[in-house]
Design a protein that fits this description.
Blueprint (H helix, E strand, L loop, with lengths): L3 H4 L5 H14 L5 E2 L11 H12 L12 H15 L8 E4 L2 H12 L5 E6 L3 H9 L3 E6 L10 H7 L4 E7 L11 H12 L5 E5 L24 E6 L12 E4 L2 H12 L7 H12 L4 H21 L14 E5 L6 E3 L2 E3 L2 H12 L1 E2 L1 E2 L8 E5 L4 H15 L4
Parallel strand pairs: 1-12, 3-4, 3-5, 5-6, 6-7
Antiparallel strand pairs: 2-8, 7-8, 9-14, 10-11, 13-14
Helix pairs in contact: 3-10, 4-10, 5-6, 5-9, 7-8, 11-13, 12-13
Length: 395
């Protein structure tokens, strides 16, 4: 009954863990959920006021497929102001979340068996999206020793005549890796040698960056020919439920995405779009305050984890996750059961410790577990204490 196309892709591991956590809470378990990729802050009031105003002004009709012109102009100005990127409004399309923006993009540029270079660890949906588009993900592995970042030389070795695209995510989910300006310049110099390769830059965590300033790889490339920049409002403005993502791309790609979206969801929510204009035009203190709170939580959680024997804890430079190596605890026993890998360890922490995390296998890594710091300091302290107690039971 179900198509092979759907049977061939997997359920999102992060969403599955979140649902499992909710189910256990319904059973009376006191789960602390550190699996979520969602800020635990409320949308700023000035954005909510803009939405209320839009409702009162009867913005209740279908919207243009690519988004309202004044929203696309606001995004164009945001790209120029914040990222040194030149995309005019006709190069921009707004979608129902950056996830839709990415999926449509891949369907529009990839043919069966095209290759797309994907650094690992990667966000869970990238791999499945590429499979859905019937293309071939070419994995470029990184490690905790090199801060989960590729080098320009690593990339050059993977490019061949079948390479259609290269996908980069900085700041990274799940690792928190952030590429420096010089690293991005070196990678761009390699890309320039291969003008047919499309660069896809996912910058959804732009505002949660603990380094000096976010840098877009498109700053070093031709935005009219070779680079697609994907972003949205979910992470930086705590608007996950509002569902507004966007991309800037060469005009041919944008037109193709609008064509596809017109047969898929059409334009995104009118009220969200009006609120998005307000979010993008202002330079609120909110994003800085949120970032600073995440930085405090990052330092707290890192210090607590470092006090647990055997865990390797790299320092994330952005996003709101810690991607720690728990392989020290593999092949240890609990009540005659051997914990063989990070999947089994993550499940053990949930069932025995009542802490929800996400196994690194979902992100292409066999040693690590992702811990979200999008929780209160109190919950983080309690959760890491539970993890420590849980791991002490293994022998």
């Amino acid at each position: 009954m179900i198509s092979r196309r759907i049977l061939n892709i997997e359920e999102s591991s992060t969403l599955a863990m979140a649902q499992k956590s909710r189910d256990l809470v319904k059973e009376g378990k006191k789960i602390i959920n550190l699996s979520l990729g969602e800020p635990d802050f409320n949308t700023p009031n000035f954005i909510k006021e803009a939405a209320k105003k839009a409702i009162d002004e009867d913005f209740s009709k279908y919207t243009p497929v690519g988004g309202y012109d004044d929203l696309r102009e606001a995004i164009s100005e945001k790209f120029r102001r914040d990222n040194n990127l030149i995309y005019d409004k006709n190069q921009i399309i707004c979608s129902t979340g950056a996830k839709q923006s990415l999926m449509q993009l891949l369907l529009c540029i990839l043919n069966p068996n095209d290759e797309i270079i994907l650094p690992s660890p990667y966000w869970v949906s990238y791999f499945q999206m590429i499979k859905f588009a019937k293309a071939k993900p070419v994995i470029l592995n990184t490690s905790i020793e090199n801060n989960f970042k590729i080098s320009a030389k690593d990339l050059e070795k993977k490019i061949n005549t079948n390479t259609k695209a290269f996908l980069i995510n900085s700041p990274s989910n799940p690792t928190g890796a952030v590429y420096t300006k010089e690293e991005l310049r070196e990678i761009s110099n390699i890309i320039k040698k291969h003008p047919k390769v499309i660069v896809i830059s996912d910058e959804i965590y732009e505002h949660i960056n603990f380094t000096k300033k976010h840098t877009s790889i498109g700053e070093f490339l031709d935005t009219k020919k070779q680079v697609v920049t994907v972003n949205g409002l979910s992470k930086g403005f705590a608007m996950t439920g509002w569902r507004l993502g966007y991309l800037g791309a060469p005009t041919k790609i944008t037109k193709a995405c609008i064509k596809l979206q017109g047969q898929f969801t059409s334009g995104t929510c009118s009220i969200t779009q009006r609120a998005a204009i307000s979010a993008l035009q202002k330079k609120p203190d909110f994003t800085k305050e949120m970032k600073n709170k995440f930085l405090i939580r990052r330092n707290l959680t890192m210090n607590l984890l470092k006090n647990i024997e055997g865990i390797k804890v790299p320092e994330p430079k952005g996003a709101f996750y810690i991607f720690a190596d728990f392989s020290y605890y593999f092949n240890k026993k609990y009540k005659q059961k051997i914990i063989k890998n990070n999947d089994e360890l993550s499940l053990f922490l949930l069932e025995e410790g009542e802490v929800a995390t996400v196994s690194g296998s979902a992100f292409g890594d066999n040693n690590c577990i992702r811990i979200s710091i999008a929780s209160s300091e109190k919950d983080l302290k309690t959760a890491i204490s539970r993890i420590k107690k849980c791991l002490s039971k293994l022998s």
